[in-house]
Write a structure and sequence with these properties.
Rossmann fold; five-stranded parallel beta sheet; 5 helices
């Protein structure tokens, strides 16, 4: 079920990472979170198309985007977000297991707001996501046109 006023869009295909991320975010950040499992679904959500065609067209406050996704990879999702006036200013954080320099460089060339490698250790992962959520949902300010 889709909640209205989604503030965090989590784009993640790994069920274990979804559970850990949601648990970490919900500990300190009580924002509306919506999860999509692949890049195509993320684009449908953001651009209100396909199964999301009836969705309120407001953008989330932040997108947590995995790099390696089925159907459409994270870099292509980012490319499409940045090429559309409705979403070009949307904060996007690459939250991925990839530590490859070419992935980091490609993400920053496409104007990613932050690139975070997922820690392998559960406690570190939880702390990283908690801090990430607090910063982007409480501290960071987004332009009003994005809301």
């Amino acid at each position: 079920m889709l909640k209205e006023n989604v503030e965090i869009l989590l784009v993640e295909d790994n069920p274990a990472d979804v559970i850990l991320t949601l648990r970490a975010l919900q500990k300190k950040v009580a924002n509306q979170i919506h999860v999509v499992r692949d890049g195509a679904e993320a684009l449908d959500f953001l651009f209100c198309q396909g199964v999301y065609s009836g969705r309120n067209p407001s953008t989330p406050k932040v997108v947590l985007l995995d790099m390696k996704l089925p159907k459409v990879n994270g870099l292509e999702v980012l490319r499409q977000i940045r090429s559309d006036d409705r979403t070009k200013l949307l904060p996007v954080i690459m939250l991925t297991s990839s530590k490859e320099q070419e992935d980091i460089i490609a993400s920053y060339k496409l104007h990613i707001n932050s690139y975070i490698q997922k820690p392998v250790d559960f406690k570190q992962f939880e702390e990283t996501v908690t801090q990430l959520g607090l910063y982007w949902m409480v501290v960071n300010q987004v332009p009003l046109l994005q809301r």
